[in-house]
Amino acid sequence: MSFKDLKLNRPILRAVAEAGYDNPTLVQEKTIPIILEKKDMIVSAQTGTGKTASFALPILQSLFDRQDAPKKGKQVKALIVSPTRELASQISDNFNKYSTYTNLRTAVVYGGISIEPQKEVLKKGVDILIATPGRLLDLHKQDIVNLDYVETLVLDEADLMLDMGFIDDVKKIERLCTKEKQILLFSATIPYKVEQLANSILNNPERVEVAQNASTSKNVNQLLYFVPKRNKIELCLHLLRNTIKGHIIIFRRTKFGVEKLEQTLLKNGYKVESIHGDKSQTARQDALSKFKNRDANILIATDVAARGIDINDLDAVINFDLPNIPETYVHRIGRTARAGNKGVAYSLCSADEKTYVQTIQQLIQVQLDVIEEHPYPLDPKAKPIVHKSKKTGSKHKKGRKSEASKKKKKRWY
Ligand code: AMP
Prior knowledge:
alpha/beta, Rossmann fold, 7-stranded parallel sheet, binds adenosine monophosphate
């Protein structure tokens, strides 16, 4: 299928061609015609699938005929709500790119920076508004934003939005818009709470599901290193010195872990940036642009800070800490090997993280390649720390596995 088959008009097709897109991605092919029919939708697709264009292009197309309303008279007709500031600004960049040859105006508003310049932009009138929930409600309260004319409401990364505790804000925003609007809900995963939200606000939605690209990507070489927890930093340095080259993201579970690793890598002369929830908006944005402009080739991040951010062309992903939620592993490694390129995912697993490897392998139906040749091997006898819980804590079982299973899985060590 080509973009022309999607019945997009010339100015949009021209911008799409200039962005270097040859053909629509799967999610675009499936969603654009339905969005143009003005139906509500639930789309399950993660970042990297081209999901932003899948709602941006039909929104621009349907507003195009009314683009020439007097500028001051412009009203917000499309509202995109995003959980994070980085994602909001990324969506806005996309809209600006695709609307180059139209007279449609886009604005983005989010917290953490001064509200005054945002008020000025809004007062001039915009067609498309991208916003994080808190700042949007704030501007509405101050009568700067009028949501009475919203025809399309997009909830992007809905699962993250709910994880971040925005449920009440989202419901409130929905109520502030007109009743007759179209609602498009995009989410990487559709857990029960997202389903519940959809049931409460969407009207007879069409569903599109796009397989998580990384789980099946054969272009990602997935390597596993068993290593004592205390040696992880040394192993990471060893890999950076000898094996891993290029543009890299390193995931850590905690903000403290991110900071600690950043300090060590800086001391060792690496060009590193980091993002996590405790950093100010400006600091996060600054770190991201330095990484994207290649002033730094290593970015260390927590999962929440990195979710939804479009970081392309990564050569490698390092799972410094393994995630306890297997889907998170899929999200992380999906950042490499995009668009048919090759990528490598390195996972450093300490004794207490072995169970995570098992659940990850079950989910992706792939055995990670265990690399035994490295300077900090894990003692095969090292026992995982067993977290005793009421459900599983049995006094007869010291470890997780039977002796027979341990023998079979020897390749793990
Ligand atoms: P997204 O999933 O929206 O974050 O998009 C991921 C990346 O894919 C972005 O860098 C887009 O510019 C790019 N992209 C979106 N649509 C296409 C397309 N049809 N062909 C090639 N790249 C695309």
